[in-house]
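User: Fold this; C-alpha cells only.

Assistant: Input:
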Amino acid sequence: MTDVEMAAAPVAGVELAAATAGIKASGRPDVALVRFVEGSRTAAVFTRNAFRAAPVHVAQRHMAAAAPRVLLINSGCANAGTGTAGDSDAVVSCGHAASACGVTAEAVLPFSTGVIGQPLPVDRLCHGIDECAGAFSSAGWDAAADAIRTTDTLSKTASVRVTLAGGAVTVTGMAKGSGMIRPDMATMLAFVATDAAVDSDERVDSMLRTAVDESFHCITVDGDTSTNDAVTLTATGASGIAAEGGEDLRALQKAVTSVCGALARAIVRDAEGVTRLIEVAVTGAETRSEARAVAFTVAHSPLVKTAAFGGDPNWGRILAAVGRAPVDDLDVHRVDVTLGDIALVASGEPVRFDETAAAAAMSGDEIRIGIGLGRGMAAETVWTSDLSCDYVRINADYRT
C-alpha cells in the first residue's frame, strides 16, 4: 500500500456532481449527489445525539429498506430541530433525487449540514438536484467535497491505492467539518468508497466501524457532538477485484482506516480559528478506554488549548487535566508528561527543563503531548486544535 494522497482519485462505480442551489447565503456550491453502481454495498454510522437531524432519521429508515444507490448532501441548512416538517422535507427531497437518478426513493440517503433550526429550502434543493443529475462524473470528487463545506476553509479529500491478490484497488473519501466536532458515532460528514468487491454488508459495516473507531472517534475540536454527524463506506465491486482471505481483508481495512485517519486529521487541521494541531498520546493505561478518557480530558481542556494558542508550555494545566480524568485510583507518582521530546514530569515529579526549548515546542504548527500513566500496556492517541480568539469570533457570528 502506498501513502495516503490528500487528493481524490476516481473510484470505479462512483459518480459525483455538485451544484449551487442558493441554500447558502454566500452563493457557494451547496448540493452534491453521489451515485453508486448497482450491486454496491454501503454501511453507515450516525451521530448518537438525542436531537438527531431529520436526514439522519430518514437515512436510517432508508438503509433498513433498500440498498443505497445515491447520497444526497446539502450544506447551508442542517434540517435539524425542524420537527415533523423537517422529516417530510427530507423525504420529499429523496423522492426528487430518486426520480432524477432513476432509483427508488428508499435507495437515496439524505445528509444535511449547516445552521440548526431552519427549515430546509426544498424547492432550491430540488433545483440543485436537477442540475447535479445532468453533471455526474467519476472525476467529481473535488466539486462534491467543495459543495459540502460550511465553515471549512478548504475541501478535504484523501485516496490510497492498495494491492490485493487479484490486483490494485482504490479507496477514496471526502469529509467536511471544522467546528462542532467531537464525533460520537458511531457538524461532521464523511463519505468513503472503494472499488473492491466485499462479500457481505456485514463485512463492510465491520470495516467502517473499525476505521471510524481509529480515526473520527479520535478527534475533537470543541467537544460538541453534532446533530448531523455521519460517515458512510461503500464497496462498489466495480474493479472486479475481490477482497478475499485474511491478508486481502487486512490490507483493505488498513487502506480504509488510513483514508479515514487522514480525513479526520484534516478536519482538526482546519478547525475553526485553528493555529496549531495538538496530538495527545497516552501510554501505560490499564485499558484502551482508560487511555482514551485521559487523552480526551486533556484535549478538551480549555486551559490546555488556550495555552497552546499562546505557545505557553504550562505543564501544570496538563497535569491538572490528567488528575481529573475518570481514572480510578490513579497513582500520580507513576505519571510522566512530555512535550515533544522534552520531559516535563517524571514519576510525578517536576523535571528541570529548558523553558526556551519548551516554548518553541509549544509554538509549532504541531504539538505533541505525551502522557504515561504507568498502569498497564494500553495506549491511545487523539488529535485536537488550540482554542483561539478566532474560534470565538466565528461561532459568535455564525448565524449573522
